[in-house]
Design brief:
Blueprint lengths: L6 E10 L6 H19 L3 E9 L3 H10 L3 H18 L6 E4 L3 H16 L3 E11 L4 E3 L17 E10 L5 H10 L4 E2 L1 H10 L7 E2 L1 E3 L8 E2 L2 E6 L1 H6 L1 H4 L7 H6 L3 E6 L3 H14 L7 E5 L2 E3 L18 H4 L1 H11 L6 E3 L1 H29 L14 H22 L3 H22 L1 H4 L6 H21 L5 H10 L34 H20 L3 H7 L7 H4 L4 H5 L3 E11 L7 E6 L4 E6 L7 H4 L3 E5 L5 E3 L2 E3 L2 E2 L1 E4 L2 E4 L11 E2 L1
Parallel strand pairs: 1-2, 1-12, 2-3, 7-13, 12-13, 14-15
Antiparallel strand pairs: 4-5, 4-6, 6-8, 9-11, 10-11, 16-17, 16-19, 16-25, 17-18, 19-22, 20-21, 23-24
Helix pairs in contact: 2-3, 12-13, 13-15, 13-17, 14-15, 14-17, 15-17, 17-18
The chain binds 5'-O-[(L-methionyl)-sulphamoyl]adenosine.
Length: 658
């Protein structure tokens, strides 16, 4: 009997549903996906969890702002996350929502256990509270009277709350982190936590009075309180496995690794181990912490308006290019800067030039020379060919080592060293010349084998990182079925395997094309901003210079009959059997309505949720594919480039546009 498969349980943070998925969320989820795929490729028993965090002040406030009830609001945004991950090809095995019954039950059970064990007490607390962070700050942490993170004023709140006796675990936690050097990785984050633990640890307030916040899980022992959102959220990692002690829990929990961004290190490295210890559950196996994506050296934020949406670039450049860039550009654990230029640079250099060219040259040569006819004998191989053969095992080891520490950039660098070696091999072995003489045939056959076999190898080891491209490569060299890491070893390509030509795997992005596109965008924007508002224009038009558009001018009275409003898109879905239409549910502040828009070829539903757009609110209702549309979204277009009109600073839904 073979040994049981290694078990691997990987989690991402569960994302707050007060914002739609952006680059940061996509990064964590994509690298988790690559890791899960890597373990599956290695034959491990994998469980990969992601989900959404749906309770607490932040969400209640966001729902109130959108003018909808929290449950409806969270349903929409949670669905946007789920859809975004589907579109990015994420292979999560489960998606948990903290509003699901299966989660709430386990949270209540754990709270009850801690209450019964005397781990929780009712205490009075006064403190400086930040609604953005949903936590109190100590005098020491406050910066100029404001929240150190948001830099907004704090609110002094005094109230009775339930507290978890976290302080008593301080000594235990320090010992645990010291005795398990790889519990928190990379080391800088472990050091940060050990540094933090040099100060006395406070007990943790784990409740919020319902008179202040109702949107949460009621405490099982006092329904005048709901559970503090972090205490609720962390438990998702357990509740997704069903009851502790159950079969799924027993199988996966001992192997759990949490992948998080550095922003949420403290709750994961301090609260969570103490909570687990108090509840009698094992502490996670590892906490893997990554850095932050910045834009132009600064933070990505809604208020700055530089948020890169999760799906913004994948349609333009493809999933694989986006994944590749994120994994190759960021050193795991450190911050990195994101820019479209850098992405295009990597796409052109590493994907189009190095990998794409190799695949295209190799498959073309093989197809044109009659295929792979035989496995060369060991003694036939020259130095470079032996180097390539030996490199297979070294790449495997290098990738294994790198993936064991989440060093995606290193794993890819190892694979690209082989790709470089292979491109050099094609250059020096000149198979197109060998093809000219019958005497060189044996040598040509060797070269074709080395190339075909190398593509087969690449089709396997690239699978976690570039799933689409790797699949195409495997198919081109006649490999069907699921790839297995154990087959990424020299000498398995069968002579006579049907090989197909594969070119254009990653088309180069032409700089000129891009700048032309950008130019179109710019001229559009420029003409919009430089032209005077229609009211002024109509009044000042000089008949001698009247342009053709102005020949059909409307009077200000006519224009003012059009009721333009800011509308927030709270839900979006494709219209069945229509390629062009999306059904949007928009909020106008005090009311909601359905608007059908013909933009499905330019926007994915998930990209639209949360956007504030402009609609014609008094357009006569019309039925489109059986759905009544109560208005029209304003959309600009220049050729194939379409853009819905959004605001350059925030206004509440329902605001008049004139
Ligand atoms: N709901 C909490 C997590 C609870 S886990 C029990 C939360 N949600 S969040 O929506 O704010 O997501 C935070 C996570 O998103 C980060 O830890 C990180 O994984 C990812 N990122 C958000 N912005 C990011 C960047 N700019 N760069 C990289 N990742 C970032 O916190």
């Amino acid at each position: 009997m073979s040994a049981p498969a290694r078990v691997f349980y990987l989690t991402t943070p569960i994302y707050y549903v007060n914002a739609t998925p952006h680059l940061g969320h996509a990064y964590t989820t994509i690298i988790a996906d690559a890791m899960a795929r890597y373990h599956r490729l290695a034959g491990h028993d994998v469980r990969f969890l992601t989900g959404t965090d749906e309770h607490g002040d932040k969400i209640a406030q966001a729902a109130a702002k959108a003018g909808v009830r929290p449950q409806g609001y969270t349903d929409q945004i949670s669905a946007a996350f789920r859809q975004a991950w589907q579109r990015l090809g994420i292979t999560n095995d489960d998606f948990i929502r903290t509003t699901e019954e299966r989660h709430k039950t386990i949270v209540r059970q754990i709270l009850q256990t801690l209450w019964d064990a005397g781990e929780i007490y009712l205490g009075k607390y006064g403190g400086h509270y930040c609604f953005g962070c949903e936590r109190f700050y100590t005098e020491k942490e406050i910066v100029d009277g404001t929240c150190p993170d948001h830099r907004t004023p704090l609110t002094w709140i005094e109230e009775e709350n339930y507290f978890f006796k976290m302080s008593k675990y301080q000594g235990w936690l320090i010992e645990l982190i010291e005795s398990r050097p790889d519990l928190i990785r990379p080391e800088r984050y472990r050091n940060e936590i050990l540094g933090f633990l040099r100060e006395p640890l406070q007990d943790l307030s784990i409740s919020r009075p319902t008179k202040r916040l109702e949107w949460g899980i009621p405490l099982p022992f006092d329904d005048k309180y709901v559970t503090y959102v972090w205490f609720d959220a962390l438990i998702n990692y357990v509740s997704a496995l069903g009851p502790p002690g159950g079969e799924t829990f027993n199988r996966y929990w001992p192997h759990v690794e949490h992948l998080i961004g550095k922003d949420i290190l403290k709750p994961h490295a301090i609260y969570w181990p103490c909570m687990l210890k108090a509840a009698g559950l094992d502490v996670f196996r590892r906490l893997d912490v990554h850095g932050y994506w910045n834009i132009g050296g600064g933070k990505m934020s809604k208020s700055i308006g530089n948020v890169v949406e999760a799906l913004a670039l994948t349609d333009k450049y493809g999933h694989d290019a986006f994944r590749y860039f994120l994994m190759r550009e960021m050193t795991f654990g450190l911050d990195a800067d994101f820019s479209e230029e850098a992405l295009v640079g990597r796409l052109n250099a590493d994907l189009a030039n190095d990998l794409g060219n190799l695949v295209s040259r190799a498959t073309t040569l093989i197809v044109n020379s009659g295929g792979v006819s035989r496995v060369p004998a060991e003694t036939e191989l020259d130095d470079l060919e032996r180097q390539i053969r030996d490199r297979f095992a070294r790449v495997r080891e290098g990738v294994d080592e790198a993936m064991a520490e989440f060093a995606f950039q290193k794993a890819l660098a190892r694979i690209w060293e082989l790709i470089g070696l292979l491109n050099g091999y094609v250059d020096v072995s000149k198979p197109w010349e060998l093809a000219k003489s019958a005497a060189a045939r044996p040598r040509l056959e060797r070269v074709l084998y080395v190339l075909g076999e190398s593509l087969r190898f690449l089709g396997i080891v690239l699978a976690p990182f570039l799933p689409d491209a790797a699949g195409k490569i495997r198919r081109a060299v006649g490999q069907t079925g699921e790839p297995k890491l154990s087959e990424a070893a020299w000498g398995r390509l069968e002579p006579g395997t049907a090989i197909e030509r594969l070119s254009g795997l990653f088309p180069r992005i032409d700089k000129e094309e891009r700048s032309k596109e950008e130019q179109i965008g710019k001229t559009d924007a420029a003409s919009r901003t430089s032209s005077r508002p229609p009211t002024e224009r109509a009044g000042l038009a000089d008949p001698a210079t009247t342009t053709p558009e102005l020949a059909n001018s409307v009077s200000i009275d006519q224009f003012s009959k059009i009721d333009l409003r800011v509308a927030e898109i709270i839900a979006a879905e494709a219209v069945a059997k229509s390629k062009k239409l999306l059904k949007l549910t928009v909020s106008l502040g005090d009311s909601q309505r359905t608007v059908v828009a013909g933009i499905a070829e330019h926007y994915a539903p998930a990209d639209l949720v949360g956007k504030k757009v402009v609609i014609v609110a008094n357009l006569e209702p019309a039925k489109l594919m059986g759905i009544e549309s109560q208005g029209m979204v304003l959309v600009g277009s220049a050729g194939d480039r379409w853009a819905v009109l959004t605001l350059d600073r925030d206004l509440p839904p329902g605001a008049r546009v004139k």
